[in-house]
Amino acid sequence: MGVHRFHWEFHVSESFAFAPPPVVSLAIEGSSQRFPVRRIFCVGRNYAAHAREMGADPSREPPFYFNKSNLHLVPSGTTLPYPTETQNFHHEVELVVAIGKPAFRIDTSEAASVIWGYGVGLDMTRRDLQDAAKQARRPWGTSKDFEGAAVVSPLVPVAQTGVLTQGAITLSVNGQLRQSGDLADQIWNVDEVIANLSRLYHLQPGDLIMTGTPEGVGPVVVGDVLEGQIAGLGEVKLTLSAAV
């Protein structure tokens, strides 16, 4: 396995102009320990039917990525104020892969060995801002990366689940099914995503990968309750409250 480690030195005596941000972490199912979150990578249009509903041709696209700040991560069960500057706020349910070992330029055959565990996530999107950015050929940042943009369930260690290659993935809003698919429907499977991403970044323990969403994405409004589920992993839940 190709591995490269970066090293930073921190000194307890260092003085900061203001308090540095806290460590961002997620609960671990069945454990008092927590999983520290380093970076969040997201795979775009990784289910063919969803790619088509977004106006893309999945047969012609290699995997591509965008990022969310770990500071914008919130846990399952959060009540999130409807975000600012949007009138078209969308849900996207996703398998989240947690990385537990350094990985750089690894092969697909090695990818499973760096998986620490899995979770269920919501990639929340200000779709109107994304559409405007696409039309102007500008980055998607403000549509995908904002407070509460990533919602993730407690993580389940891979030792408890085994390597996941298939399983139902669904999302309901107020009890009504909106999204339904299977992990086996991914265009680029998890091993391929990890191997490809490891050529662009030095993956490190604590990195999360949100692996794309099945078809059926759509708008949500104040008062809606979202429940995303993946077979064997439990669920992620989000309630939308009034904007602040």
Give me a quick take on this structure.
With 244 residues, the protein is an alpha+beta fold. It has helices at residues 48-53, 108-111, 127-135, 141-144, 158-161, 190-197; strands at 25-27, 34-36, 40-43, 65-68, 73-75, 78-81, 89-91, 93-99, 115-123, 125-126, 150-152, 156-157, 168-173, 176-182, 208-210, 218-220, 225-230, 234-241.
List the helices and strands and how they pair.
Blueprint (H helix, E strand, L loop, with lengths): L24 E3 L6 E3 L3 E4 L4 H6 L11 E4 L4 E3 L2 E4 L7 E3 L1 E7 L8 H4 L3 E9 L1 E2 H9 L5 H4 L5 E3 L3 E2 H4 L6 E6 L2 E7 L7 H8 L10 E3 L7 E3 L4 E6 L3 E8 L3
Parallel strand pairs: 3-15, 5-11, 6-18
Antiparallel strand pairs: 1-2, 3-4, 7-10, 7-16, 8-9, 8-15, 9-11, 9-12, 13-14, 13-17, 17-18
GO molecular function: acetylpyruvate hydrolase activity; metal ion binding
InterPro entries: Fumarylacetoacetase-like_C (IPR011234), Fumarylacetoacetase_C_sf (IPR036663)
Organism: Comamonas serinivorans
Number of E strands: 18
Uncertain residue segments: 1-10
The major pleated sheet works out as: 8 strands, mixed
The span between the termini is: 48 Å
DSSP helix fraction: 10-25%
